[in-house]
Amino acid sequence: MNDLALHLLDIVQNSLSAGASLITIIVDEDLIKNKLSMAVKDNGRGMTQEQVKKLSDPFFTSRTTRRVGLGVPLFRQTAEQSGGSLEVTSEPGKGTLLSVHFQYDHLDRPPLGDIPNAVVLMMSANPHVDFEYKYSYNGKSYEIDTFQLKEVLGDTPLSDLHVMGMIEEMIKTNQSDLKVCPIQ
Amino acid sequence: MTKIKSLDELRQKKQQLEQSLEIREKSDHPESMIQIKVAMATCGIAAGARTVMNALVEKIRNEKIPAVVTQTGCMGYCYAEPTIEVKKPGQDPVVFSYVDVKKAEEIIDKYIRNNELIDGILPANYQTI
Q1: Cβ neighbours of B128 in A, within 8 Å
Q2: Distance from CA of residue A153 to its chain's centroid?
Q3: Does domain A4-178 have CATH number 3.30.565.10?
Q4: B5 assigned to some structural domain
Q5: Most exposed: A11, A55, A163, B94, by fewest CB within 10 Å?
Q6: pTM for this prediction
Q7: Rounded to an integer, what distance in angstroms lies between the CA atom of residue B67 and that of residue B71?
Q8: Is residue B14 part of a domain?
Q9: B76:A66 CB<8 A
């Protein structure tokens, strides 16, 4: 995995496999505290304590097509090599929360990558699932969710490729605006 | 072009788009569209599935091909990632392996447009693994 956006795509795929209908993605860049955090929360079928414990084992997977599952172990390794951590809390029938923290300026922390693109790809590839996305930069934040988007779009599906480009542009403009320092 | 920033601007832009392009009601008739599924599990993403998906989206958008791009999980072909499955209406799905940007364009130009088969098709599975 080259950047954190790819890990995000991967983790969200797990939520989708767990049958989630609402997935919340949170990305928080906090340069003041020197922290970068990401979280993925879903309302899928959840996991038992036993399964949560086994998550870091690369030879544990719920899938039947192959015997290894590297998504979470790779993400955990990336977090731990850059002075961070990964935690998963889950309850059967309720859903799962995966949160990961990085030391922002750690040399081994991979770049964040193109998060808006990843989010929009997920939204449009899974129009029947709702997504909430929150991005924060030094305490200022921008939020968008598919409930609002679907209302605005009306009959036009989220999977429409022109619409997709527009949403991506909207998220990117708002995110880069958060990074502008106001003139004192 | 002015940048879209708020939901209202998005709404306006969408209306302009509808007038100029006459968007088909894709979500209501997914079976009449070509469906492209990009395998996006750990193996696929690590091998570059996102780049491929972006390339597909870009080409389909520019050339106005009646197709929807969705994602799927691991199909068990980790060695051959990135893989994409193309299902034309009324036909059996075909899975292409080792897809990069160039190959993705070739699939659209040859298979989707002209029904021409190209190298790298994975054999259909008749048994569960």
Answers
A1: 64
A2: 23
A3: yes
A4: no
A5: B94
A6: 0.80
A7: 13
A8: no
A9: yes
